[in-house]
Write a structure and sequence with these properties.
Blueprint (H helix, E strand, L loop, with lengths): L11 H4 L11 H18 L3 E8 L2 E12 L4 E2 L6 E2 L3 H15 L37 H5 L31 H14 L4 H10 L22 E2 L5 E2 L14 E2 L1 H13 L5 H8 L3 E2 L15 H5 L3 E2 L4 E5 L2 E10 L2 E8 L4 E7 L8 H9 L6 H4 L7
Helix pairs in contact: 3-6, 3-8
C-alpha cells in the first residue's frame, strides 16, 4: 500500500525567520526537495517521514509527509510524537559535556572515581565482578562507544555482560556503556537524569514536546511504527528513562535541538569541540555487528571516528558529524556539516525510510562522505 503524502509545514510561523540565509537553500530548492522526498516515499512505500533543514545553525525548514497511523489515515505532522531512539545518545553526550564544563565529571577519569562503591557491587553489573577492566571505563570511552561491550548483554550466548576488547581499544557500539554512565550520574553524582535532560537540554532548546519518559499528553498525537514489511507496531509508552534511547520527540523539537547543538549553546568552546572531535577511531566495515576485528580501508579514507554521542568524518569541504536512531519500526538520522553549520534531520515511523536516506541527504547536502556502507551495511553491499 502506498502512503498518501501530506503537505510540508514550514517553521516560518514559529521562528519568524526566512527559509534560509543568502547562501543557503532557496525556496525553490526546498520545494524541489519536498517533492523528491514524497516521490521516494511513494516508490519505497514509506508510511511516514518528517525532516528538518538547519542552515548556519538556524532552523530553515521543517516538513512532515505520510501517516502517523495509516489505518486511521491520521497524517504525520511536525508536532507528531515520534520515537527518538538512539538520537538520545547524542543529546546525552551533549548533556554530559555540560557536566564537564561545570567540573562535575572528567571525561578521562575512571568511573570508579565517582561511585560510592565498586560497580560490580551493584546487582545490575555483578557480571563484571571478575572483570577488573571496568575500572578503565571513562565518560569519553563510553560516549565514543569504546567500551568493548556488545550492544546489549542479551545478545551474548550466556546473557552476561562481558568485555570483548579492552576499553578504548576498538569502537564497539553499545547501549550497555550508556547505561553505566547513566548510573554514574545518578548514583555517583546524585542527579536525576530525567530532570537533568529536561531542564538542561529540552527546556533550553524550547523542546516542549520532548521527554525522556512517556507523558500522557503525547497520546493524542503520537506516531505508530511500521516494520520493513509494513507490519504495524503501536508506539509504546516507555516508563523507564534510558540515556541510550528513551527520548520521545517531534521533528520540530529535533530541529531546535540540533540547531542548538550546532551553535554550541550551553557549552564552552572547548567542550563543544570535544562533542564532534574524533575520540575513538573506527576501523570496522559496519556499525553492526558490533564485535568484530575486521577492518575496512574506507573508514580510514574519511577519518571515520566516534565523537561523544556522534560519529565524525572528513572530506575536502571539512568536518562532518552524524547520528542515527533505529529499531525495527523506526529510522532516524541527523547529518551535519561543521563549517557551514548545516544539517538535515530525518525522523521516520517507518523503517523503510532508511532505504531512501542516502538519496535525500545527497540532494539536501550535496556530494558528501557519509559512510552509508557503515551505518546501513546490509543495504549497501558492493
Amino acid at each position: 500500500m502506498r502512503a498518501v503524502l501530506t503537505a510540508a509545514t514550514s517553521l516560518l510561523a514559529v521562528t519568524g525567520s526566512a527559509l534560509a540565509q543568502p547562501d543557503g537553500w532557496s525556496e525553490a530548492e526546498i520545494v524541489e526537495l519536498d517533492t523528491a522526498i514524497q516521490s521516494l516515499m511513494a516508490e519505497e512505500e514509506v508510511v511516514g517521514l518528517a525532516y528538518a533543514l538547519i542552515d548556519e545553525s538556524e532552523v530553515a525548514h521543517v516538513a512532515a509527509f505520510g501517516y502517523r497511523n495509516r489505518k486511521n489515515a491520521a497524517p504525520l505532522e511536525t508536532d507528531s510524537i515520534m520515537y527518538g531512539a538512539s538520537l538520545t545518545k547524542a543529546a546525552f553526550g551533549y548533556y554530559v559535556l555540560m557536566l564537564v564544563d561545570e567540573g562535575l565529571i572528567d571525561l578521562d577519569a575512571s568511573i570508579a572515581d565517582y561511585l560510592p562503591r565498586p560497580l560490580p557491587e551493584y546487582d545490575e553489573w555483578a557480571d563484571l565482578a571478575d572483570q577488573p577492566q571496568w575500572r578503565d571505563l571513562t565518560a569519553r570511552i563510553i560516549l565514543s562507544n569504546g567500551t568493548g561491550f556488545a550492544n546489549f548483554r542479551w545478545l551474548e550466548e550466556d546473557g552476561r555482560l562481558q568485555f570483548h576488547f579492552p576499553p578504548g581499544e576498538r569502537q564497539t557500539y553499545s547501549a550497555e556503556g550508556f547505561y553505566i554512565l547513566q548510573h554514574v550520574i545518578e548514583e555517583g553524582l546524585g542527579l536525576d537524569l530525567k530532570e537533568e535532560m529536561q531542564t538542561r537540554i529540552f527546556d533550553r532548546f524550547g523542546m516542549t514536546d520532548t521527554s525522556m519518559q512517556w507523558r500522557e499528553d503525547f497520546a493524542d498525537h503520537l506516531a505508530d511504527g511500521y516494520a520493513m514489511d509494513g507490519t504495524f507496531e503501536p508506539h509504546d509508552e516507555r516508563s523507564g528513562v534510558s540515556a541510550a534511547g528513551s527520548m520521545d520527540t517531534t521533528i520540530a523539537d529535533q530541529a531546535r535541538m540540533w540547531a542548538g547543538m550546532v551553535r554550541g549553546e550551553g557549552l564552552s568552546a572547548e567542550a563543544r569541540a570535544e562533542f564532534v572531535s574524533p575520540s575513538q577511531v573506527i576501523r570496522s566495515p559496519g556499525q553492526f555487528p558490533t564485535i568484530t576485528t575486521e577492518e575496512d580501508p574506507r573508514a580510514a579514507a574519511i577519518g571515520l571516528a566516534a565523537g561523544l554521542g556522534v560519529i565524525t568524518f572528513q572530506d575536502e569541504t571539512g568536518h562532518w558529524f552524524d547520528k542515527g536512531g533505529h529499531n525495527p519500526w523506526t529510522g532516524n538520522r541527523a547529518t551535519c556539516h561543521e563549517e557551514t553549520q548545516r544539517c538535515i534531520v530525518l525522523l521516520a515511523n517507518s523503517v523503510r525510510a532508511e532505504l531512501i536516506y542516502s538519496q535525500i541527504v545527497e540532494q539536501a547536502m550535496g556530494e558528501n562522505p557519509m559512510p552509508w556502507w557503515w551505518v546501513y551495511p546490509e543495504q549497501f553491499v558492493e
